[in-house]
Design brief:
This protein is α+β, with helices and mostly antiparallel strands. It has a domain at about 180-235 and about 250-400: 2-Layer Sandwich (Alpha-Beta Plaits), CATH 3.30.70.2520. The chain is about 25% helix and about 25% strand. The chain has helices spanning about 85-90, 110-115, 120-125, 150-160, 195-205, 260-275, 285-290, 320-330, 370-385, 400-405, 410-415, 425-430; strands at about 15-20, 35-40, 55-60, 65-70, 75-80, 95, 130-135, 145, 165-175, 175, 180-190, 210-215, 225-235, 250, 280-285, 295, 305-315, 340-345, 360-365, 390. It has an eight-stranded antiparallel β-sheet. α8 (about 320-330) packs antiparallel against α9. The longest helix is centred in the C-terminal third of the chain and has 17 residues, at about 370-385. It is globular. It starts with 16 loop residues before the first strand and ends with a helix. It binds flavin-adenine dinucleotide. The site of flavin-adenine dinucleotide has 32 residues, from β2, α2 and β9.
């Protein structure tokens, strides 16, 4: 059996078998004695989608649309359908995903299991807030239709449930109406972190999508400088700009990371200097999914792969905690081209293990430099712990069990819903 890697390409995990169910009505093929785990498109960075020694239930063939009401925007599809496939179907008919992460290459099942969030969390919550229901298939063969009003406890456990409560076979989503495929985008530069908080407060009141790119290399008075992007779906236009998707690819994996201290400084400086302030119309694809334009971009980090560190810290301490995180990252001269800072809204998450919660979330990629990188993460963990925050399992490949317990106080309650035949590399790591 060949090794499987997730998006960070860090660890090679060897499942004993990969099963590809091709009907939502079929029973699960469960070889005795081996744990099973659903697998979407492997866009999680760490090991939540890996199952060394076990069986991966790859959902690529659960790819059918079941129903779409173009008047109400209610869509039912199988769990292996990707967000790209949904957009291809619904955008021309005036509908859009109510919440989307920064890539379209994820499945509906994966979006539920990590309860993914997007740039509109402060206005719309996370993916699960727009779920009308789904079917959960357990290893016993039992099927439960779950929704806010039916089997609500299974609904809450499966949302953000990391694929451990069973296989989601289909789901029903409420989409959001749009007038056209374009976004109205406002861009502002801010010279330091204090200016971010002011701008963010003002922008969040009027704009449903907000996010900032932070120069993680800048220090001193410029620490936390960056570019703020606010957006909304464009109003009806008399004439729309022409747009065609350009697809590029990183054709090979270099032996070492192309992201290093020098390229990092250069890129961040250039991005800051070239950012143009103002208002513009942008197609939703480059706005939401800039990285999807380069297939296999994760190869630029070389053979050792990369980590993403994404945390959330509560509102009361977010200013100090984010400043401290950035100070430590800048001092380490590690970090990524694009550090992303966003504040979550106050809508309570529906999942027992949902990551999104009120506060600020910071996300950065780090080339894997072995111990030096892991030592930096220990430092960052200490700041997050002190702040009472949490790390995002979808992006994680190394947090300790203690860190997980602190960030996810309902983990004990959640354990009761874990299917006895299901398991993952992540779950074995944090529950060891
Ligand atoms: C470039 C990029 C940008 C990203 N941006 C964001 C972002 O802005 N916000 C955000 O929240 N996340 C973001 N992510 C993370 C990504 O959205 C999540 O990791 C997502 O869960 C990946 O979906 P997938 O289909 O690839 O699932 P996988 O990564 O294959 O699996 C993820 C989890 O879902 C479970 N699962 C998959 N299918 C099913 C099913 N049918 N039934 C039950 N469980 C299932 C798996 O067991 C696993 O635990 C980003 C990832 C990338 C690569």
């Amino acid at each position: 059996m060949t090794a499987w890697r997730s998006w960070g390409r860090l660890t090679a995990s060897e499942p004993a078998a990969v099963s590809r169910p091709d009907s939502r009505d079929a029973a699960l093929a469960l070889p005795p004695e081996r744990p099973v785990l659903p697998f979407g498109r492997g866009r999680s960075y760490g090991d939540v989608c890996l199952n060394g020694g076990g069986v991966l239930l790859h959902t690529a063939r659960l790819d059918r649309f079941i129903a779409f009401d173009r008047c109400s925007g209610v869509l039912r599809c199988e769990s292996g359908v990707t967000l790209r496939e949904i957009l291809d179907l619904v955008v021309p008919q005036g509908w859009f995903l109510p919440v989307t992460p920064g890539t379209r290459e994820v499945t509906v099942g994966g979006a539920i299991a990590n309860d993914v969030h997007g740039k509109n969390h402060h206005a719309a919550g996370s993916f699960a807030h727009h779920l009308r229901g789904f079917e959960l298939l357990r290893s016993s063969g039992e099927r439960r239709v779950c929704g806010p009003d039916s089997n609500p406890e299974w609904f809450g456990a499966t949302i953000g449930g990391l694929g451990l409560t069973g296989l989601v076979t289909w789901a029903e989503l409420q989409l959001a109406p749009i007038a056209n495929p374009f976004m109205q985008v406002r861009t502002r530069r801010f010279p330091h972190l204090d200016a971010f908080w002011e701008l963010n407060g003002a922008m969040e009141r009027d704009w449903p999508y907000t996010v900032a790119w932070i120069d993680c290399v800048a220090s001193g008075g410029a620490q936390g400088r960056g570019v703020f992007m606010a957006a909304r779906h464009a109003a009806p236009q008399r004439q729309l700009p022409a747009w065609r998707e350009k697809r590029r690819a990183m054709p090979f994996t270099p032996p070492f990371s192309l992201v290093n201290a020098a390229s990092l400084r250069g890129f961040n400086q250039l991005y800051w200097l070239r950012a143009r302030e103002g208002d513009a119309l942008a197609h939703h694809v480059p706005y939401f999914y800039p990285l999807d334009g380069v297939a296999h971009w994760n190869r630029i980090y070389g053979r050792r792969g990369f980590y993403q560190y994404q945390c959330v810290v509560p509102p009361a301490v977010q200013r100090d905690a984010v400043a401290e995180l950035l100070r430590r990252i800048s001092r380490s001269a590690q970090g990524s081209f694009l550090a992303v800072l966003k504040t979550f809204g106050t809508l309570p998450s529906l999942g027992m293990l949902s990551f999104a919660r009120p506060g600020a979330t910071l996300a950065l990629d780090f080339p894997n430099r072995g111990d030096a990188t892991l030592r930096l993460f220990e430092e960052l963990d200490a700041v997050v712990r002190e702040a009472g925050g949490a790390i995002y399992p979808a992006k994680d490949a190394r947090m300790s069990g203690a860190m997980f317990e602190l960030g996810y106080p309902r983990a004990g309650e959640f354990s009761r819903f874990v299917d006895p035949r299901f398991g993952s590399d992540f779950w074995r790591r944090v529950r060891a």
